[in-house]
Amino acid sequence: MSGLALGLVVLSAVIHAAWNLLGKSRRPSPAFFAVASFGAGGLLLPLIVTVLGTAASLPGVFWWVLLGSGFCQMIYLASLARAYQQADVGVVYPIARALPVLMVAVVSTLLGQSLPVLVWLGMGLVTVGCLLVPVVSFRHWRWQAYGQAGCVWALLAALGTAGYSVFDDRALAIMAGHYPSFMAPALLAFTYLGMQFVVTGSWLMLWCCHREGRRQWRQSWADWRVALLTGVMMGGTYGLVLLAMSLTENVSYVVALRQLSIPVGVGLGIWLLREPAHRPRLIGAGLVCAGLVAVSLK
């Protein structure tokens, strides 16, 4: 991974932890994230129209990949909202962010990409660290900690993250091969991001087609400024990741290094939200850091 891609992913990780902290403080709903997605997509709409008008229509497979990515993003955001209603950032965030590391690595391997042993070791440390964060005490270990609603929703969010990471890598490859070589990767990355936000917002609207969802819509529009800020932060962080993906041969490295946001998020939750600093939670965050070092050395 190049130094530029490394810097982009680190910056993205810090911003990602910040918007999750903001979201937790507002008790977000799927409707909240729908407003955030449409807001971010609307800001990028002029770029979308401009870039799409510079070449012939994209192939049909691209639009199916985009729909798949938006669906996985919907699963991720809706599950994340439910998880934050049930548990602390220090529990939900590491699970939702760390488990996709091995998921994406397995998919990448099945697609023919090979990973060094050191990378697998690092990814294993990240996963073990994530499994420690729901534990309150080593002395009074309870497997029931993993069955709490917050952990279950966080696991579903992790599945969504792994899914959209694979779809996005494919979509960016299609765009890179379709548009002229002189077009900057950042331009294509943010164009795709805007389209993804619009599709994700549409999927989230379908999620909210019920009585409770309509009530959440009214609450979210009343809080539209915070939702829009959240959307801008979401767009900024993942736009940087998309750009890093376009500069990296193996998406697994990008997904793994993004997990730097885990110790940052746990620390901010303890500091700003006064969440408990249980020893297993802190050790788990430390293992995540060690795993990230192993991955970056590859």
What's the short version?
By secondary structure, this protein is mostly helical.
Helix share bin: over 70%
Q: What is the ordering of alpha helices and beta strands?
A: HHHHHHHHHHHHH
- What form results from the Cα inertia axes? globular
Average of pLDDT: 83
- In whole angstroms, the N-to-C terminal distance is 9 Å
Uncertain residue ranges: none
Secondary structure tally, helices: 13
Q: Please provide the count of β strands.
A: 0
Overall number of domains = 1
Report strand %: under 5%
The helix-and-strand class reads mainly alpha
The main sheet comes to: none
Q: Radius of gyration from the CA trace? A: 19 Å
Helix/strand layout:
Blueprint lengths: L2 H23 L4 H14 L1 H8 L7 H25 L4 H22 L6 H16 L16 H30 L6 H23 L3 H12 L1 H23 L4 H7 L3 H12 L6 H19 L1
Helix pairs in contact: 1-10, 1-12, 2-8, 2-9, 2-10, 3-8, 4-7, 4-8, 5-6, 5-7, 5-11, 5-12, 6-13, 7-8, 8-10
What does this entry look like structurally?
InterPro entries: EamA_dom, EmrE-like. The chain crosses the membrane at residues 6-22, 31-55, 61-79, 91-111, 117-138, 150-167, 187-206, 226-247, 253-273, 280-297. This is EamA family transporter. It holds the Pfam family EamA. The chain is mainly alpha-helical and 298 residues long. It has one domain (3-297). It is 79% helix and 0% strand. The protein contains 13 helices and no strands. The chain has helices at residues 3-25, 30-43, 45-52, 60-84, 89-110, 117-132, 149-178, 185-207, 211-222, 224-246, 251-257, 261-272, 279-297. Helix 4 (60-84) runs antiparallel to helix 7 (149-178), helix 4 (60-84) crosses helix 8 and helix 5 (89-110) packs across helix 7 (149-178). The mean pLDDT is 83.
